[in-house]
């Protein structure tokens, strides 16, 4: 139920990012240092493949219209979460949005550093299940190439980066407290890949949001505290220098026993026939 609530609140939160209070603030226990909850500021030059998705038309002037994260996996190819492209988040079909852009090379969203590159096409995984959350990825093709060196390699199935307890880092411009506060600058949090058995225990089978090891992975800390949060969706989880996950869902942010759930990149590769 909690995660259903969290999911239900996320979309309105994205749209009302500047609102002073959010329902999540009262629904969650105190998360003192929740990224990116429990994170630290980073310069985008340290993770040049981390991009922000923005639309000023849809999301106004706040935070340069940032509403999700993404990750560059090719000079003009960005992966993000399918749910970021959902009509219920965007308020329109992605193909109808004239100013959908990727912001690259900009840590501070309100600065004019880096580049804003228009998205020329959006491909949402047709296998995405908006109820069960599986297959949560989309591929954006950019109208211009990113600067060289802005691309990260993807970890294939069997890569040791997926092993339980591997240290990993998640990046994003999302909520830093779980209560709707957005720093407007890129943050990162250090987490660990968690064993599938633990993820299954945290998110057992149910109507929605159950954990599926084949298509998802989960990461966090046993005590909670470090996690991705609203607004980080679609952004990268990196281990051993390779992309292993996309921020997808979870119950709250940084809650003990409720790790963040990510789209498993090896499943993305398999689905796209890139593996
Ligand atoms: C979201 O819906 C979201 N704490 C992202 C990450 C997490 C929860 C929700 C994980 O944007």
UniProtKB/TrEMBL annotation:
Keywords, sorted A to Z: Disulfide bond, Hydrolase, Protease, Serine protease, Signal
Q: Could you say which residues form the signal peptide?
A: 1-27
**Stated family:** Belongs to the peptidase S1 family.
Protein's UniProt name: Serine protease
**Gene Ontology MF term list:** peptidase activity
Give TM segment ranges.
none
Example GO biological process:
proteolysis
Q: Which organism is it from?
A: Streptomyces thermospinosisporus
